[in-house]
Design goal:
34% helix; 14 helices; binds flavin mononucleotide; 13 strands; 385 residues; binds iron/sulfur cluster; single chain; two-stranded antiparallel sheet
Length: 385
């Protein structure tokens, strides 16, 4: 019977357990996307904490696909040494690391993208103020190539896998969603056309990186927004991806504009609120041959273990619990099975925007109280530098 601490292999990548650090933007890069030493330290800390696979924060493949500040970029060959330092730090600590590749599409602004944002259609994306420009077919081809070039660099620089970001309303998701894709050409309309961009990206990435290199995807099983991507279409996309040889699908749901059903839901304070994408993930799992990861609100050991044992999930991915406790996998493995300490308040986003890197604000407050540090003073060991 499958269990949380089984060793498994995905297309030659051996993972020490079924726990995954889901992609988490850290805000720890220079403006051009070059990783800083504190990001490397953070990944080392996660690897030491026992996680099976780390997925990096979303990493732009072209500068016009950048969203938040401090985001990683993989658009330049001269970042080689920085990224090699990063992957070595993880491997030396016994971990494995996949890099998440993204183009933000219309979910950005001129300040971060350096130009008017680009999207499948010139439709304003909810919660973003600028109307994007509609991509020409030539520009679509260029972005497909940028994903493939990113995968080439990722493999050369020691990443164990790439993960395509096909969730949370970014460009791949924008093409899939009828809400943001109003095109009348071969990239819009029916599902085959709306998924054309995704399959072009997938195929070119696979061809460039090689059949023996794991290519994963984080896929929205639903946008949780009227008129957006629905589970029926997501199931068909997942089925096609599986047939095309995708190595793993991580199931998520929601976009920033989805209100309480956004990807990182608040107040997960009892087991019944946990695992909020599991029902969708089960439906995806039923039609695919590849392994399935599920993310969203996992906090208790039992909920995670049961999703593997009873619901046929292959991997459990977590983001916020590992911001607060990078050593959570080792803690559970060593027998302390109390739930993750994260209270799902989402206050960790703030320091990523304002202080040069995310950390758990709640933990800092608790430390300040315990250490009687004056309010505002920096608590030790939570900024990872
Ligand atoms: C600070 C922060 C940054 C995030 N950055 C990303 C990201 O770069 N890519 C991504 O796919 N999801 C991102 N997410 C979403 C998480 O990967 C995850 O899907 C979501 O938080 C739900 O999982 P959790 O309940 O374990 O946190 C982020 C979440 C947080 C809190
Ligand atoms: S600030 Fe801390 S407790 Fe709140 S969501 Fe982030 S990691 Fe969890």
């Amino acid at each position: 019977m499958a269990a949380l601490f089984d060793q498994t292999t995905i297309n030659g990548m051996t993972l020490r357990n079924r726990l995954v650090r889901s992609a988490t933007w850290e805000g720890m890069c220079d403006t051009d996307g070059r990783p800083k030493q504190k990001l490397i330290n953070l990944y080392r800390e996660l690897a030491r904490g026992g996680i099976g696979l780390i997925v990096t924060g979303y990493t732009f493949v072209r500068t016009d696909g950048k969203q938040l500040s401090g985001k990683m970029g993989i658009h330049r060959d001269d970042f080689a040494m920085d990224y090699e330092n990063l992957t070595h730090a993880v491997h030396d600590s016994g971990g494995k690391i996949a890099i998440q590749l993204v183009h933000a599409g219309g979910q950005t602004d001129a300040k971060h993208a350096g130009r008017q944002p680009l999207a499948p259609s010139a439709v304003k994306v909810a919660q973003f103020s600028e109307i994007p420009a509609e991509l020409t077919n030539a520009e679509i081809g260029d972005i497909v190539t940028a994903f493939a070039e990113a995968a080439r660099r990722a493999r050369a620089w020691g990443f164990d896998a790439v993960q395509l970001h096909g969730a949370h309303g970014y460009l791949i998701n924008q093409f899939l969603s009828p809400l943001t894709n109003r095109r009348k050409d071969e990239y819009g309309g029916n599902l085959k056309n709306r998924s054309r961009f995704l399959f072009e990206v997938y195929q070119k990435v696979k061809d460039t990186a090689g059949a023996d290199y794991p290519v994963l995807i984080k896929l929205n099983a639903a946008d949780n927004l009227e008129g957006g991507l629905e589970i029926g279409d997501a199931i068909r996309v997942a089925e096609e991806l599986s047939a095309a040889g995708i190595d793993t699908i991580e199931v998520s749901a929601g976009i920033r504009a989805s209100g309480i059903k956004n990807p990182a839901r608040n107040r997960i304070n009892k087991p019944e609120k946990e695992a909020y994408n599991l029902t969708l993930a089960r439906r995806i799992k039923a039609v695919v041959n590849c392994p399935v990861m599920v993310v969203g609100g996992f906090r208790s050991y039992e909920v995670a273990a049961n999703a593997i044992k009873d619901d046929d999930m292959n991997y459990i991915a977590m983001a916020r619990p590992l911001i607060r406790e990078p050593g959570l996998p080792n803690r559970w493995m060593q027998g302390d099975l109390s739930p993750a300490k994260c209270i799902s308040c989402n206050r960790c986003f703030g320091p990523g925007l304002e202080e040069g890197g995310i950390y758990c604000v709640v933990e800092k407050k608790e430390r300040e109280k315990a250490n009687k540090l004056p309010p505002g003073a920096k608590a030790k060991s939570i900024t990872f530098d």
